[in-house]
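Note to self: keep these together.
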Amino acid sequence: MASKVIPRYKTKHVSQVKSDYAYHHTKHVVTQKTERKSSSKSVSQVQAQAREAMAEQAYTIPVFRQRTAEETEEYQRVSKNVGKGLAVIQEELHRMKMTTKAQVESLAIQNEVKSMMAKRGDMLDEIPKMPDFLVALRPHTVWEKTPVKLFCTVQGNPRPIVKWYKGGVPVDPLSAPGKYKIENKYGVHSLIISRCVVSDTAEYSAVATNQHGTATSKATVTVKRPAGVAMSCQLGLVPHLTEIHASKLEVTLLDRFPVTFGVEGSSIRLLCNLVVVPDLPNVPPLAQWYRDDKLLKPSKLAEMFVGGGAASLTLPQLAKDDEGLYTLRIFTKDGTSEHSAYLFVSDATPSSAGAPGAPMSVKAFDINSDYVLVAWKPPNTVNEAAIIGYFVDRCEAGTDTWVQCNDAPVKVCKYPVHGLKVGHSYHFRVRAVNSAGMSRPSRKSGQVTALDAAENERLQVIKIEGKYDIVIKDDDLEGYVTIPGEPTDVHASEIFKSYVVLSWKPPSPRGRAPLCYIIEKCLAGTGAWQRINTAVKLHSPRYPVFDLQDGQKYQFRVYSVNMYGSSEASAPSESIQKVDEDGVPSAPGQIVATRNTKSSVFVQWEAPKHLKNLMGYYIDGRAVGSKEWFPCNHKPFKHTRFVVHGLIPGETYVFRVQAVNVFGLSDESQESSPIAVEPALATPSAPFGITMLSCDGSSITVAWKSPKHCGGSKINAYYIDKRDADTLVWKEVNLSAVMERICTVDNLKEGTFYEFRIQAANLAGVGLRSAPSTPMKCEAWTMEEPGPAYDLSFSEVRGQSLVILWKAPVYAGASAVTGYLVDMAKKGSSEFVTLNQEAVSHRFLQVTGLEEGETYVFKVRAVNANGVGKASQLSEPVCAKALPGTKEIEAGVDTETGDIFLALEACEICETSKFVWSKNYKPVGDCPRVGITTKGRTSRLTFTNPDKDDLGRYSVVVTDTEGVSSSHTLTEDALNTMLELSYAIRHPIVPLKHGLNYEVLEKGHVRFWLQAVKLSPSVSYRFIVNDKEVTSGEGHKISHDVATGIIQMTMDTFTRANEGTYTVQITDGRAKTQTSLVLVGDVFKVALKEAEFQRKEHIRKQGPHFSEYLYFTVTEDCTVMLACKVANVKKETAFHWYKEDDEIVPDTPPSVASGACALPIPLFSRKDQGVYKAVLSDDRGKDTSVFDISGQVFDDIINAIAQIAGASASDLVLQCTPEGIRLQCYMNYYTEEMKTVWKHKESKIASSEKMRIGGTAEMAWMQICDPSDKEKGNYSIEISDGVKTHTRTFDLSGQAYTDAYEEYLRLKAAAFAEKNRGRVVGGLPDVVTIMEAKSLSLTCTVWGEPTPEVTWFKNEQEVATNEHTKVMFDGGKFASLVINKVSPDDSGKYSINVRNKYGGEFVEITVSVYKHGEQIPEPKLGHPKTAAPVPPKSPAPPSKTPTPTPSKSQTPAQSLRSPASTPASTPVPKSPTPVPKSPTPTPKSPTPTPPRSVKSPTPPRFMKSPTPPRK
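Structure:
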């Protein structure tokens, strides 16, 4: 339990006195902690008082106190009674004296000890001593998420430097902000680890170092995790912690939100990054946001968030109401931490140009049951027309329907809205109007509920026995009242020119019935009262009156009315006149603008003499030289001082101010004096980055970086202080100013550590001192490698590149510096990358390939013959991002003087800024080859006499800015181009877009023309033809057009006499030019021919003629169409087609009336070549168009056909024949003239006995005769149309080849069998009619291999040889059946069967026998059992496309519906039904002649094809 400290002034009643030293020491500490409220006395005074207290003095009775006997007796009696008390007092006094003496002696001893310790310390300071830990580190075991503090005390002479390590790695507090905190107070070094985690478990060490040695102290920190925490953390739960109030956290603001600019309707986020110690997820810091010192609360319009190391405020729907000064207040352990910045919200783009901005701050006042007073603030009007008035809209809460409240615009920023419904809630908004249009609506007001404001006043609360509250109404106290009393205090609460608002007090007594009011008015003094709210039932004691006449005074009175009747009239009001009582404020007084920052100006002004309920001020600005004013704020500002942000650095501005009240804006104040946007003059900030460049044992050369802020004035001096690292006394190094950022400090002791600090000075004075440098040992450098480069700076920083520059090392080493290596790393990373593998000799390097927005650091190492030297100090972090508004160097030529120049317009500049130009990063200085001029924000480098010596890379840096710089490489080509332009400017000519040219017009007229880039109205020119000037006149027309720059001359008649040279001479001010055209020889002949042609064309077009001569097109079905277009035709105009002078009569006669004629040429091929002619004629004349289809034209037609045919080509289809395997490709049209190539395995196939290529009008095919395994593979057909190649492929391998080969063998065997089977070659008739008793001989020739067997039948019975019938077969070739002396019984159906092992043929003959004298009967044919073909007696009709014929007799392919054979000349028979199990389509083929009889030895069969049918 904590002990309670009792102050001295509260201890009077304590009699016990403690004399031990510990008590006094504790009391001393408590007194120090209470800030020493009582003054302490010196030691000498204490000792003197103590001696006086210890002195023993004798007591003597004075004379005047001598007593009589009685008095003595009485005294003794009294003394006897108090003797005991006095003894006690004396004893206590003695003890206190002894205690005081002990205290005095103790103080003397302490002082003596202190004196001796001080002397000992001085003696020890003079004795060198290596570091020694007086208090070493001790191990700690802590719970997770709790802090731990490691501390130690170390001594040594000189004073040691202590560094902390974790597991041998240096502890860097910047690597994890808020994680580590290193302190050194009163000789105690400490490392604080906040919010430990398990990974913080490690061995920590403190290493103390001085020039005499090193000492180390180590300790282990173990971080434990409570049981069950791991599981809860995995589940995303926060373990239970001891309750910590947010105000106990240490909070540091890091990245703070800047001055921000937004636009109405957009969203914006103000963000401030925090470092919170300890960072507890369930205890975020307590943050509050303020706008203009008013606390904001979370809402839909203001979203707040604190956590994750940040505090943010999001405004999702900006309006001008949101403009103001925003403040973030964080409650911390030591109080509060705040940051403020202004948010500007500008007007959104108006709906119509010139319309005003939206009003703002719409609020409702004086709320009653059916009345509310709406007020707002007017917008700023800078360049817009003045505001005419305002419209007020309302909508009920929960709806989006807005209703306009006023029919005419109200001119003041208040408006009374009446006619509301009791108990309903409303929102209001306002729109401003001027001559250009209507503004955007304002942000809607807060929700307002129409309620009777006096209702609460009529309630009374009575307490009974201090416990119970009874609420009663005034109605209950009034008794039973029927007719109400009259209203009182009728007056005008608002008086404006637009309206007057009447107000009164409700009647008393009022009654319980619902109440309304009737208002009457009259002209003052007349007594003629008129009711004014006849159509309005009024419930509120407020009413706006709008229809009063100007200049008239009125009086008003009011009646109270309820269901029982009306009250008496109220007393009349005072006379009221409609008039603006105040008006706008007067103009603000004197305005003064002063410098603030590089982009802002501080503006102050005097308040108006007549405020008139001032709302605030609007501040406007204008750049000097511009006529356009711009608003600096968009919401009235209440104070008389304002900081204008967002200005262009270096630009000059003037400002004015207007006061604002409910009536609008006042007149503008007088303009301020012009002021340039520059930072306010102040002393510079502290230099930094002190580094040692060289040391010779008695001196050290140091360099440093210039301050980040120069204070608005050029830095003109630096002052250096030094001290021994083991002392606290600083000594000045230089009394006179050092101008450069490098200095050699002399008279140093070798082996001693020194610290340095720097101050910068400008016109405002000497700035802050830098932080002490790290201790530097004065020890002579003897290494052979060079020292570090220094003064690293950056130029031309862009999104992906920058240029780094540095200065050469002071210490060169054992040999001269030969080059430099540049290393780069991302900020916070220790992984450096060397940018140049080979050392560069110059002291700059352009770095490319950066990531935009990423931050980098650099270091430079010098190289000499002995090696690579020490790296330079790390550069300042640089972000790869261009400054806003950055512009590049512009190379150009002055249009007036012709001077070649390089120029840069800086995006920012200040009063002390200078443009420093360099060539190849060496300052140009006063060079006679160039001249440098600067005007405002632009600097120009002009070349005096430019040539190749001026080529190179030029750069410019603008000093005292955030790094404004740029570079430009002047190349030889660019210089030559600019030299040509410079010569043209200095020796002006009239520039021409087009030189003199000619153009042949209709009727054979010739126009000579030229076009200048630009002509002035005073231009003069001459046309000269063959050294003679030509003027406008007969046959010539000369003119010019200034707008287009064209000068022209038109000749009506162009003949052989016009051959020669044409020249135009132009003079336009100082500029001159001349251009010529030579029309001689072949060039003239071409022009003359064209002129004659145009003349003839003109004549030709007088009669019927071709508006477009013959041309060809190809239709989708590959029909070639010869087409032409005709014009100037009539009904009698005749049209004829000819080929080679032979007239062609198409099926459809040409129709000239349609304006177009066409001749179709189907199935186009080489036979259609020739000269085609179209003739158009009537009584007015004749015109002819000729089209020669040959050569290239023929090829073009074939290509056009191939384009359509190739696009329509089907996939390759496989078809087997007895001769081999055939691949077929179907298309709209095919002709052998098309460029068609067949390929096997990407090798072109030539037509041969093995590979036969052919086609029909419908398809192209390729047949593999007698296929073998060599023919396996991928086949393709390529159809080329001259532009594109159409390819179709088929993979003839694997199962596809196996099936095809089997089908080929089957068809080949069937063909062989068909060829060698037994058959009747000829000789037998179909019908035989013979007379009785005659002999009949049926003889035929048969064939077969082997020789067939022959059998004769009669009526299906075999005929045997006998005397009557004789069967003969001679030589295996001739078969005969002889019937001797035929009789009627021999009539019948005879047949012969010829057969061998391959098959046979069955032929029938009908024999009729008649008697002598009978009429010869008509022959009756027999009916064959089966249909078998007989070789045709006449050849089959020829095919359109030649088909290979392997032999005179071929085996026809099998058909599906019948076993009959077809002639072999047809590849595939025509089948009326689809082939089963085969998707292969079958083309058309001639149908064979129906045979007499057929007998097929084998059943028909079709192979399966993997190729889908052609669509």
